[in-house]
Amino acid sequence: MNLKKIALFVTLFIPFLLNAQATNTSSNDDFKCGISEETAALIKQRLMANRQLFTRQEVVDLVSNRAITYVPVTIHNVAANASGLGKTSEQTILAFLCGLNAIYADQDVQFFMHGPIRDRISNNIYTNAGTSTSRNQMLSYRVSNTLNLIIGASTTNPTASWYDRNGDFVFLLQQMLTSAAKTEAHEIGHFFTLPHTFYGWEGNTVNTTYPSGVLPSCTISGGFFSHTPERVARTGPRANCQTAADGFCDTPADYFSSRLNCPFPAFSDCDTVPLTPDESNIMSYAFDACVTTFSPEQEAAIAMDIATRTWATNTPPTTTDITGLALPVSPLSGAQLGDINNSTVLLEWTPVTGATMYYVEVYGTQFPGLWYPNVNDPIYKGISYTTNPQFNLSTANLVAGSRYAWRIKAINSLSTCASFGSYATFEATTGVTTGLKDLPIEKQMSFSANANPITTSSIAFSVYSAEDVVGSIKIYSIDGREVLSLTKQEISTGDSMIQLPADGLENGLYVAILVTDRGQLQQKIILQR
């Protein structure tokens, strides 16, 4: 590879590669958990009821002696209409499942998909998931004895994810889903009877209500219910951590029900003892970057709730952790694929041990000759629910003579963390071969200034051509005058660099046009010397 190609590779491909490999860690710090004070009370009520079912030793045994517990998850992916408006990408779902299992792994709790992702259509949920109509629709979706995760956009009310105690399902706001899965872990914590660490303070911004920074009374009235705030003391006559707030003594007293960065502001309890809240606790309202863990008592509560529930199954189809890559077999890069006059064409790849399904992506391409995937031009993205390493791709969106890039990710209902295999590209064809010269000029050639703005006495252009052509370059001022031109010359197949002297041109905006018998390409350039 010559220096020009190396430079072009670094400029064009590396940003794409970084974007493709980056995990979705966009901030959720403007969002909240949407459980009501009533739901918060019901969650704690179930927590306290579960404690009556187990002796202390039984709880110890649940936490320390059990094997991995597998929890069946039914995923409902809500779109506004049959065309898929607002539908969440399956890759987003696979990514957060991977992150969720990582968070719960130290508890020997793992989540697996109970059957295929269920596509649902509800303009109500797409528009506003918080209405009674939307909640009733979600309730109708429930699959008994599984953890139901319902995903939607809620476009007019995109503020929160939440656990519905009455329906015993979790709504996940599409915009909050990330591969880190902090929101998902928090809401599922509610499903498993974990209150907020700031229980009792829902809807009350303590440092605004009490600007002195000290709680003036040991009894708080107002809101849904009056409550006795948790004191900082963990032992002695002043300690009330067993019953107050979230009911856990290993989660320090926390009064902060607004999303905050860590560390939290200074505040003192009614004994004037400074709070030391645990901003790393997943059930707190610290920013996503702060939260990482559950406390041991919270983990014991999760174990108790799992044990009290009847599950549809605790056995995923396979527990194999997928590490292999699915690699394209046909078509390989540069091959032709057709006939697209048929309704489908066949993609084939290497089978991967443990895979019971595969996630397939097909994109249009960009940069002729390099044919990098254009992630802004998706042709198909979805899960093939079969062990067979092949997929019949619809030809409805394929254009003869155009190039496409495709790749595959091996998964099963439990293991969704494997990497994608490498991309391969193919040219869509019909029964009649399409000549390169018949394609749009953008698919035959590329044309760009090496530097822009241009600060030197000459202008260097990079030109790629898929075939030998004859062409010239013309420079026009902003008022349409031709101010510089290069006489016609042969432009060879591959990469070329063409330089034009520009000593006589004043600083300013110009338009450079590559003129060939195949068509024209143009670019705005700025002289700034």
Automatic annotation (TrEMBL):
Keyword field contains Hydrolase: yes
UniProt keyword list: Hydrolase, Metalloprotease, Protease, Signal
Example GO biological process: proteolysis
GO molecular function: metallopeptidase activity
Entry keyword annotation includes Hydrolase: yes
InterPro entries assigned to the protein according to its UniProt record, in alphabetical order: FN3_sf, Ig-like_fold, MetalloPept_cat_dom_sf, Secre_tail
Signal peptide as annotated in the record: 1-22
Family annotation (NCBIfam families): Por_Secre_tail (TIGR04183)
Protein name: Metalloprotease
Organism of derivation: uncultured Aureispira sp
